[in-house]
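[step 3/7] fold_predict: job queued, chain A
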Amino acid sequence: MKDETILNHDEAKDQYGAIVAPIYQNSLFRFKDWDSIDKAFDHKTEDYIYSRLMNPTVREAEDKIAAICRGEKAKLCGSGMAAISSAVLHCVKANGHIVTVKNVYGPSNNFFNKYLKQKFNIETSYVEGKKIEDFQNAIRPNTQLIYLESPASLTMELQDVQAVANLAKQKGIKTVIDNTWASPIFQKPLEMGIDIEVHSASKYLGGHSDLVAGVIVSSKQIVDQIISAEHELLGAKMAPIEGWLILRSLRTLPLRMKAMMETTIEIAQFLEAHDRVKKVHYPGLKSFDQYELGKRQMTGYGCLLSFELVTSNLDSIKAFVNALKLFSLGVSWGGHDSLVYAPVISYLKELPKERFEEMGISPSVIRLSIGLEHVTDLKNDLNDAFSAIK
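[step 4/7] structure written:
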């Protein structure tokens, strides 16, 4: 079935035939006798014993996400970072080595560069990632994981997902990709050979800026191993109410992605032609240097873009951000509401100054998340804000 049908057709699974899955807001599940609970403990990645591991409401959402990602199984977590850290910890051991892209998401970078390095002596090599040779040259004898983020944060650089997956398989190295930007609607990395796909479900999958969640998608074997180890032992559970909210949001995911993509492309073209903008980073623009690669491995484009103002004067940058009326100032993205963020606010707090510079990010970079407002109103709001730049 097509994604739209998968997300909007439900088989009646409860005893009353409810058209919408009920919320099983319970912590545990009771059993009729000793033998039935004893049997459940032999299949605890499938049977319902305790909602920290498995819950029917959450499972309903997981099954739909796995289906549209073309994976065998999915596991929802309490946040995107819970999904990322669980997937990474599944793949690495002490004294190992990770290869990732230089513009990886800030908290992911901190997890690699600080937590794993200090706790487990795991080293990380950062590469540009635009050429397969970047990964080939970074691999060491103890490399255990190649971690992708395509497009990468802020600068939106792509990696050739299939080529990296093939290389990793030749070397016996696991691959994980953060596929949040493109969503499962526009990019399906598991079909290209990636081992594990992760998402911040707070973004498109949730879609309404009212929940925090993450998800891991892979083969049943890998997901079951993560459930029994990282997920259970580190407590990365998903609450039933949030699982239900994601289930609600998934029904409109294809429609929202299409509508936001159309608006975002028009906004990107508007920014590219504006005299107060130095450069626009968005794979949906034909001027983007990896446009052809994007067309080959994605069927559409996300709603997040960045651009560089012509000025690096902090007062002017602040004036632009503060002048926006329809774009709310906030850190997340992927919801129905348009947002603006200046990464310089937090990146220098989260990352060492040298890492910020290595990522090629200047203080003039502005990030926009395009929502479901009318494109004309958004362009007018941006135009008004540009006039605040002296």
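[step 5/7] annotate
The radius of gyration is 21 Å.
The longest helix spans residues 253-272.
exit 0
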